[in-house]
Structure formats: structure tokens, C-alpha cells
């Protein structure tokens, strides 16, 4: 029996190396599939927009046009129905333990199936090499995954860019790859350790082969990263957590470097290059967005050579409105940036969704003075300090701030027939720009919009949390109506003693007319029309109550507004527009775990119940979930 862990290749080396390469071939294949799906979806969306431009070609431009697109729509609907369901744990203190949605669980099971196959294929033979063979195999399976760990942690993420996703949406997989690696690394170490222990060889191995100690060190760091990455711990002191996480990851790379044989080093260098590329790209992006070599102090609001003028304004007791001026990049509704305000947080950059639609440049020499607006809800650290600063300096001069991004790859919102936008509290800062950007596109001669109807749901405990959004939503709704898009606003103020706030949410914009014309509309005041089937029982539980609570109002500009004193029945809010849609509906939800899980389950059930794209004529439902968390 060979006890030599120095042995550069290890037993079964050819197979082990082949598995490491196969792992990356599989990754390339899966990413390739993701790219193909993205390309087909993009072509679909573009051809829909083309049909919408020329209304004479089709009365229903957002439905599948031929057998191929019908097949694609059916396959998409089936995948979506499987993907969305999520079991939500409503117990206070345990909500963080809510499992992943079913789609992610299935991805994880597939990943584990591949890894388990690689761990165990042809290694369990009852001979003298039993322990060593399993040990080497699992060492290779562990190191094969190492670059994946670093690839999935990248903010400037190549996988995201290719498949049309973003770093915060891939982060869950980064964590699970790390956990999987901890298991394979443990199996690797356990088998060598047991082999040495059986031969009474442990002390000698530790003394004579230093790489064993480095291996144990790398495993210890992986364990540390796993423990500190568990949810309640991860969120205790986020900045400290990030700092130790980055340092530990770099130290782990060095320990792995001295532990593994030369033939596996390419995997280490892949990891190092992902890490270095990401950091370099982030710094380059930061410089590109914030440094102007010849700032024009006279144009727009006055450019800065280094950073941007930033104004902050407290809006109510929990919200700060941040305006980053003179930003020269385009963005899409749903993208976010990292905000760095050294005066408020010297070493902190926080992600915030761009809460306004981009104003396209009107001519080659005309500066459109685009400002990025961020709506920041006060939590613990930075955001609380920011609010305190804004309150203490109501007339303060501009701060200097820096932006990095924009990140995120949202879909083409304008290519859907109907949009249902559900936002809770600061989550409205995600959905409102979608409404505004669609309206802006509808007003632009160069853009095509397929959207016919938008339902916008804004939920908060206190009126002051969303009054700012409601003002803007009303303004956008009025504009939308002028462009032929029907908009229904649902405003729910759910906190105790907030009844007075829901009817008369004050407005700061005198151009918005809030006068109410009677009578109350039939659509909103009546009981829920949708049948409450067995299947949708969970979503229907509050139907009667919500229907009673909802009050419909037609504002004088004709747009419809419904107000609620309890949470609106999400299923009802989604079902109505889906049932009346002429084509595909996009449901967008941004809020806490409970709201997002409820919406996922509702959309999945609704799609299944209506047999979307399965011969009933029911059209597809796309779901976009944002939780403002990794
Ligand atoms: C893609 C994305 C978009 C977001 N958009 C908005 C928005 O438009 N408006 C809004 O009010 N909030 C938004 N958030 C949430 C916002 O980033 C956090 O609330 C903020 O970073 C909290 O930091 P804090 O120091 O103020 O609070 P803390 O109390 O220190 O942190 C609260 C929690 O926020 C998270 N967090 C803290 N710092 C960071 C960070 N640098 N990066 C990621 N997460 C962090 C941690 O989970 C932490 O536990 C968004 C988050 C993400 C991921």
C-alpha cells in the first residue's frame, strides 16, 4: 500500500483528471444551454415587439405565432410551473430557514447527482488501495469545483452575462457549491486520515508531509466559511462578515496552492484569475463611471472630475431619497448600482435599485442630465446613518458619491401584454421604475410597447413608507392612460391605526389630481369573481376579507385606484389581469420572503390550473422575483 500523499498524481490519476475536466465540460454545456434559451427568448421578445409595431399583422401580437413558438411557450410554461413553488416557514425566528424554491432544489439535486457520481465511480473496491483511492478521487472532485466557487462569487459575472442573469441571482449557487465542496473535502481528508490511523501513521504523516497540514488548514477555512455563512450569522454584522469572508477565501487559495499536485494547479489558477478579473473589472467600472478627465462644470448640474454630486433628502421617518446627479450611462428598469458615499460610510458600498426610468438622450449634443435616484429604506448601519445625515442637513450642499454598475439583466418589460407589479415597502422602488419606463417608452416615438394593462400593487405598514411612490405612480398612471395603457393602482396600508392614511395619501406633486369621482367601480367593490378551487385554497383564504377591504376609486383622470386596510389578496390581484390578458403576463414581485413565496406559489398554481399553453388558450405567466438580498 502506498502511504505517500506526496505522490504527485495519486491513485487513479488519469480518471480523476478526466473527471475534473468533465466537470468543466458539463458546466460549459449547461451555460451553453442557458445561452441558447436566452437567445430564443430574446428573439421571441423582439419579434413580438415587431408585431406590436405593426398592429395590422396580428391582433394579438404577444401570443405564439406558429407551431415552433407554441412548442416553446408550452415547454416554458411547464418549466415555470415546476420551478416556482416554495415552502415558506412562517415561524418567527425561523423564517430564514425557508427552503429554496423547487426549481433551485432541482438544480441542486442535479448538481449533487453529478458530484456523487464523480465521487463514487469505480472507487469502492475492497483492496489495499481502498482508502487512498477514495481519498484521491474526492480530492480531485473538490479541487475541480474550486474555480466554480470563485466564478459564482463574481460581481462582474461571466455566467450572468452569458445567460442573462446577475451576481445576486447566482449567489445561492455559490453558497451551495461551497457546502458541497465541504462534503467532498471531508470525504477526501477522512479517507487519508483513517488510512494513516489504521497504520498508526498519523503523527509521522503530519511531521514528514507538510502539505497535509496545509490541506487540513484549507478544510478548516472551508468549514469556517460554511459556519459563518449560515444565515442569521451572515447578517449579524454584514461588513465584518464580508471582510473576513474575502480574507479567508484568499488564504484558502494559498493553502490549496501548497496542498495540491502540479497537475491540478490549473484549477487553482482558474480560481485566482476569476478573483483577480472580478476585482479588476469592479475597480475599472468604478473608475469608468466616476472619473471624468475633462469635467464640464457648466453643463447640466455641473460635472465633477471625481465622483458625482449627490443630494440626500429624508422622506418620512424611514426613507431617504438619494439623487446622484449627472450620470452618463444608460440603465434598464430593474437594474441596481452600488452606492459609495465616503462621508456616510467610508468603506461601505451598498446595492440599491435605480428607482427611476432612464431618460434617453434626445440628440447627439444634448445633455439629458440623467440623475440616478435611489430610495433607501433605513435598516441598521449605513442606511440609518444616511437618514440621520439627511435629517440633520436638510439644506446641506451636495455630498460626493460614487456609483458602480449598473448590475442586473432584467427582461424586456415592454414585450408583455400585461404587467402585474407587486411591491412591499421599499420593494416598490423596484416595481415603480418598470411602470415609469414602460410609460416613457410608450411616449417615445422610437420605442415599441406591447403592454396594454398594468396592475401596480403597493403595500406598506404605514402610509408614509409609500406615499412618495404613490405620488409618482399616480403621475405615471395618468400618462399611461393618455398613451392607451390601462393602469390600476392598488394601495394597501396594513398597519394598525393607519386607516386615515390610505384614503388621503398626501401628495407633494400639485400636478396630480386626486379628486375622486363616484360611483365606486363594480370591478373592485364586488366579491372575488375567480372560483376558489381546491388547488388555490392557500391563496384564496383571505379572498373574502380582501374583497371586503378593497375600495375602488376612479380618479378624475380616469385611472383606477383601489385602497386596502389589510394585505390585498395576491392571488386575486394576479388572477384578474391574467384572465383578461390577450397575451403573456409578467408578474413582478419585490418584498419579503413571505410575499415572494406566496406569489411564487400563486403563479405556479394559476398556471397549472389554467393549463397555460396546453390547448386551453390560456397565455403564459412570467414571474420575476426580487428579494433585495443575496
Ligand atoms: C440587488 C439589491 C437591490 C437593493 N435595492 C434596494 C433599494 O432599492 N432600496 C433599499 O432600501 N434597499 C435595497 N436593497 C437592500 C439594501 O442593500 C440593504 O438594505 C442595505 O445594504 C442595508 O445595509 P445597512 O448597513 O443600511 O443595514 P444593516 O442593518 O447593516 O444590514 C441589513 C442587511 O442588509 C444586507 N446588507 C448590508 N450591507 C450589504 C451590502 N453591502 N450588500 C448586500 N447586502 C447588504 C445584509 O443582509 C444585512 O443583514 C437592495 C439589495 C440588493 C441585494
TrEMBL record:
Residues 267-413 form the FAD-binding FR-type domain. Residues 499-516 have a biased composition (Basic and acidic residues). It catalyses: 2 a Fe(II)-siderophore + NADP(+) + H(+) = 2 a Fe(III)-siderophore + NADPH. Coiled coil: none annotated. It is a multi-pass membrane protein. The chain crosses the membrane at residues 23-40, 105-124, 144-164, 176-196, 216-233, 240-260. Its main location: membrane. One of its GO terms (cellular component) is plasma membrane. GO terms for biological process: copper ion import; intracellular iron ion homeostasis; iron ion transport. The keyword Electron transport applies. The keyword GTP-binding does not apply. Signal peptide: none annotated. Gene3D superfamilies: Nucleotide-binding domain of ferredoxin-NADP reductase (FNR) module. Residues 498-529, 546-566 are annotated as: Disordered. It is found in: Cell membrane. Keywords: Cell membrane, Electron transport, Glycoprotein, Ion transport, Membrane, Oxidoreductase, Transmembrane, Transmembrane helix, Transport. PANTHER family: FERRIC REDUCTASE TRANSMEMBRANE COMPONENT 3-RELATED, FERRIC/CUPRIC REDUCTASE TRANSMEMBRANE COMPONENT. Belongs to the ferric reductase (FRE) family. This is ferric-chelate reductase (NADPH). It comes from Bionectria ochroleuca.
Amino acid at each position: 500500500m502506498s502511504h505517500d500523499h506526496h505522490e504527485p498524481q495519486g491513485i487513479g490519476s488519469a480518471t480523476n483528471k478526466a473527471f475534473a475536466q468533465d466537470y468543466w465540460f458539463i458546466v460549459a454545456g449547461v451555460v451553453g444551454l442557458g445561452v441558447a434559451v436566452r437567445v430564443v427568448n430574446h428573439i421571441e421578445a423582439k419579434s413580438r415587439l415587431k408585431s406590436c409595431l405593426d398592429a395590422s399583422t396580428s391582433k394579438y401580437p404577444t401570443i405564439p405565432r406558429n407551431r415552433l413558438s407554441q412548442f416553446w411557450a408550452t415547454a416554458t410554461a411547464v418549466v415555470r410551473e415546476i420551478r416556482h413553488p416554495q415552502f415558506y416557514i412562517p415561524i418567527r425566528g425561523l423564517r430564514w430557514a425557508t427552503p429554496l424554491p423547487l426549481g433551485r432544489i432541482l438544480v441542486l439535486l442535479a448538481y449533487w447527482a453529478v458530484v456523487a457520481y464523480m465521487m463514487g465511480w469505480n472507487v469502492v473496491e475492497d483492496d489495499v488501495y481502498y482508502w487512498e483511492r477514495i481519498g484521491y478521487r474526492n480530492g480531485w472532485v473538490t479541487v475541480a469545483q474550486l474555480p466554480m466557487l470563485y466564478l459564482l462569487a463574481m460581481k462582474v459575472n461571466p455566467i450572468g452575462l452569458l445567460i442573462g442573469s446577475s451576481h445576486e441571482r447566482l449567489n445561492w449557487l455559490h453558497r451551495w457549491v461551497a457546502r458541497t465542496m465541504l462534503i467532498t473535502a471531508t470525504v477526501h481528508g477522512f479517507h487519508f486520515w483513517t488510512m494513516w490511523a489504521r497504520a498508526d501513521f498519523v503523527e509521522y504523516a503530519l511531521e514528514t508531509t507538510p502539505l497535509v497540514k496545509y490541506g487540513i488548514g484549507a478544510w478548516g477555512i472551508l468549514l469556517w466559511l460554511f459556519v459563518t455563512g449560515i444565515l442569521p450569522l451572515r447578517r449579524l454584522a454584514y461588513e465584518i462578515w464580508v471582510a473576513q469572508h474575502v480574507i479567508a477565501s484568499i488564504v484558502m487559495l494559498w493553502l490549496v496552492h501548497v496542498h495540491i499536485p502540479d497537475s491540478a494547479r490549473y484549477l487553482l489558477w482558474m480560481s485566482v484569475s476569476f478573483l483577480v478579473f472580478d476585482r479588476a473589472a469592479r475597480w475599472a467600472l468604478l473608475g469608468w463611471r466616476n472619473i471624468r478627465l475633462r469635467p464640464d462644470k457648466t453643463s447640466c448640474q455641473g460635472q465633477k472630475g471625481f465622483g458625482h454630486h449627490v443630494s440626500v433628502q429624508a422622506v418620512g421617518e424611514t426613507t431617504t431619497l438619494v439623487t446622484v446627479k449627472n450620470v452618463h450611462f444608460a440603465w434598464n428598469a430593474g437594474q441596481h448600482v452600488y452606492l459609495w458615499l465616503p462621508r456616510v460610510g467610508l468603506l461601505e458600498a451598498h446595492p440599491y435599485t435605480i428607482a427611476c426610468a432612464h431618460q434617453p438622450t434626445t440628440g447627439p449634443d444634448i445633455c439629458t442630465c440623467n440623475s440616478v435616484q435611489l430610495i433607501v429604506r433605513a435598516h441598521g448601519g449605513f442606511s440609518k446613518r444616511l437618514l440621520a445625515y439627511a435629517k440633520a442637513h436638510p439644506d446641506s450642499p451636495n455630498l460626493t458619491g460614487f456609483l458602480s454598475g449598473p448590475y442586473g439583466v432584467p427582461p424586456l418589460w415592454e414585450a408583455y401584454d400585461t404587467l402585474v407589479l407587486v411591491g412591499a415597502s421599499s420593494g416598490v422602488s423596484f416595481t415603480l421604475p418598470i411602470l415609469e419606463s414602460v410609460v416613457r417608452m410608450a411616449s417615445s416615438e422610437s420605442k415599441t410597447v406591447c403592454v396594454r394593462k398594468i396592475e401596480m400593487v403597493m403595500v406598506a405598514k404605514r402610509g408614509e413608507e409609500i406615499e412618495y411612490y404613490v405620488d409618482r405612480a399616480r403621475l405615471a398612471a395618468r400618462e399611461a392612460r393618455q398613451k392607451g395603457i390601462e393602469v390600476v393602482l392598488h394601495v394597501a396600508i396594513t398597519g394598525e391605526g393607519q386607516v386615515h392614511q390610505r384614503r388621503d395619501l398626501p401628495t407633494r406633486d400639485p400636478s396630480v389630481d386626486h379628486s375622486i369621482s363616484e360611483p365606486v367601480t363594480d370591478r373592485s367593490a364586488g366579491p372575488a369573481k375567480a372560483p376558489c378551487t381546491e388547488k388555490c385554497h392557500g391563496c384564496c383564504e383571505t379572498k373574502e376579507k380582501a374583497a371586503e377591504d378593497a375600495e375602488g376609486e376612479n380618479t378624475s383622470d380616469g385611472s383606477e385606484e383601489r385602497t386596502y386596510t389589510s394585505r390585498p389578496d395576491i392571488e386575486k390581484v394576479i388572477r384578474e389581469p391574467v384572465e383578461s390578458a390577450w397575451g403573456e403576463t409578467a408578474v413582478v414581485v419585490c418584498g419579503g420572503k413571505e410575499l415572494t413565496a406566496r406569489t411564487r406559489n400563486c403563479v405556479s398554481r394559476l398556471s397549472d390550473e389554467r393549463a397555460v399553453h396546453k390547448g386551453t388558450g390560456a397565455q403564459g405567466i412570467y414571474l420575476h422575483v426580487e428579494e433585495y438580498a443575496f
